[in-house]
Amino acid sequence: MKIKKFLKGIVITIAAIIFALFALVWFGTYHPADVEPITATCPTSAPTLQAGQSLKIMTWNVQFMAGKNYTFWFDVPNNDGPDERPSPADITQTISEVARVIKDENPDIIMLEEVDNGAARTDYEDQLARLTKLLSADYVCSASAYYWKTLYVPHPRIHGKMGLMLVILSKYQIGAAERHQLALPPDSWLVQQLGIKRAMLEVHFPIQQGGEFVGIATHLDAFAQGSNTMELQVEQVNQLLANLTTENISFIIGGDFNLLPPDDAAFQRLPVAHQYYYNPQSEVKPLYNNYQAIPTMDEVLSAEYAKWFTYLPNDPAVPYADSTLDYFFVPRNITVGEHHVRQADTQKISDHFPLVAVILLP
Q1: How far is the C-alpha of 351 from the C-alpha of 86, rounded, in Å?
Q2: Half-sphere exposure of 68 (CA within 13 A, CB side)
Q3: Potential cystine with 61: which of 113, 118, 167, 237 (Cβ 3.0-4.6 Å)?
Q4: Contact 197, 145 (CB under 8 A)
Q5: 177-181 and 109-116 strand pairing
Q6: pTM score
Q7: What are 243-296's pLDDT values in tens digits?
Q8: Are 358 and 56 in contact (CB under 8 A)?
Q9: Which residues contact 308 (CB under 8 A, 6 or more apart)?
Q10: What is the side-by-side strand order in the sheet with 54-61?
Q11: CA distances from 344 to 171, 309, 310, 321 (A)
Q12: Adjacent-strand bridge partners of 355
């Protein structure tokens, strides 16, 4: 009887420990719905979009304002880069440089990826709040959505809290906003809870004459080799855009798609060690087929394809820009004007360059 009681006590203790660990992970991590509303910040005094007006839009992965003085542990193929976080001085310098470029380009709508909020690696700061203090007071409207929110990540190169956001800033009135969850890479339950949960941030802009325009910021997966995750995420993007098209709503989606252009040469140009990250046949092709792409296929296939590179690896073995990973996609009824990748003065700011485009609303 004593042995039975002893064994029963051990079982109960083990069960209690397992339950406590489960509760710790569950309540310390983020569990977004497939679609959930986002509260936008926008005063009623903000101007409203006008039908037929020109809009300048920028998308930029700002790499958590870390700058380019590092090779982070995840920046090299074997995940053993020497650095884990940027210095406070580099963060300050980088935020200042991001603000400089934004003020110089003066876009109407800004889409940012990899903006930290509450992350240990960037001293728990709200980077969006810090950035907006340096920008024009015209950016009165904003919406943001987390895609990594964890109280503690026990990874040996992290050991701390993580908070990572998609952000849309606007000079114009914002109505409803929503966060759309993207497919997760196949992995254990624990890894999925603690890891990044990629998303789309959808923002609706009312138009003065009636109707609305939709802006979507996104950042697709970067570490999904050996699975169909990228294909599933592109399908989700395509479905959202198809729904908007069916509803006759004009839109633009922009961000870091972590996918090469649908061109065999783009894959072949990569250093062999970096080809591991991509499929030779890019999963982004359906979006090129169904919508207007920025950059266009003609541009990424031209003799000047390098001017459309948006990615400059932190890998010391590849000290040059080597690929296009960032895009805009718009419907056929949108007129696309001047567009460019700002490369010349941004190579020390982030591992991605800003992509800028002017469009004309219907």
Answers
A1: 13
A2: 21
A3: 113
A4: no
A5: unpaired
A6: 0.95
A7: 999 999 999 999 999 999 999 999 999 999 899 899 999 999 999 999 999 999
A8: yes
A9: 295, 299, 300, 324, 341
A10: 141-153, 160-170, 109-116, 54-61, 355-360, 335-341
A11: 26, 12, 11, 11
A12: 59, 341
Displacement of CA 273 from its chain's centroid (Å): 24
Q: At residue 41, what is the residue type?
A: T
Number of helices (H) and strands (E) in the chain: give both, helices first. Answer: 9, 13
What one-letter code names the amino acid at 302? Answer: S
- Kindly write down the DSSP assignment for every residue of 223-282, as one continuous string: S-TTSSHHHHHHHHHHHHHHHHHHTT-EEEEEEE-----S-HHHHHHS-HHHHTTS-SS-
- Measured CA to CA in angstroms, residue 202 lies from 31, 239, 299 at distances of 18, 13, 27
How remote is the C-alpha of 100 from its chain's centroid? Answer: 21
Maximal C-alpha separation, the chain: 84
